[in-house]
Amino acid sequence: MKLNRVESTRSRHRRVRRKVGGTGDRPRLAVFRSHQHIYAQVIDDQQQHTLVAASSLEPEFKTQYGEGDTCAASTQIGKLIAERSLAKGIQKVVFDRGGKLYHGRVKALAEAAREAGLEF
């Protein structure tokens, strides 16, 4: 039976979430990608608490970078989430791509976060 795109994404997401979990020492960097925007959260799964979040919908992000290239926006969100995480003392995370393929905007966010100082 062939799965459609949504079912394939859900299947990958369930498979990844079975293996990837965040702790207090090494929280999970979760990425959600919609058609126009990208969201990133650093989550402690044991406490069920979001420690840091950033998205392309934030007013300061929109005024600074405006509308346009979504891949460039992903790079900026990666840098922003890394800066906020490092400010809270979080250096090591576990990367959760949210069922999406590690390609394009998800990859751009991950590489920017690594360059900005996050380890995963």
Describe this structure in words.
By secondary structure, the chain is an alpha+beta fold. It has one domain (5-115): Nucleotidyltransferase, domain 5 (2-Layer Sandwich), CATH 3.30.420.100. The protein has helices at 5-19, 59-65, 70-87, 105-115, and strands at residues 28-33, 38-44, 49-55, 94-96. The chain has a 4-stranded mixed β-sheet with strand order 3-2-1-4. Helix 3 (70-87) runs parallel beside helix 4 (105-115). It is globular. The chain starts with a helix and ends in a 5-residue tail after the last helix. The mean pLDDT is 90. Residues 1-10 have a biased composition (Basic and acidic residues).
Labels describing this entry:
about 120 residues; alpha+beta; Nucleotidyltransferase, domain 5; four-stranded mixed sheet; about 20% strand; Large ribosomal subunit protein uL18; RNA-binding; rRNA-binding; Ribosomal_uL18_bac/euk
CATH level-3 fold name? Nucleotidyltransferase, domain 5
Class in CATH?
Answer: Alpha Beta
Uncertain spans:
none
CATH architecture: 2-Layer Sandwich
- Count structural domains: 1
SSE-based structural type = alpha+beta
Instruction: Give the biggest beta sheet.
Output: 4 strands, mixed
Report the radius of gyration as a whole number of Å.
14 Å
Span from first to last CA?
35 Å
The amount of helix comes to: 40-55%
Strand content: 15-25%
| Average pLDDT rating | 90
Q: Write the H/E string, N to C.
A: HEEEHHEH
Spatial ordering of strands, largest sheet: 3-2-1-4
Total of helices: 4
Number of strands: 4
Task: Based on Cα principal axes, name the global outline.
Answer: globular
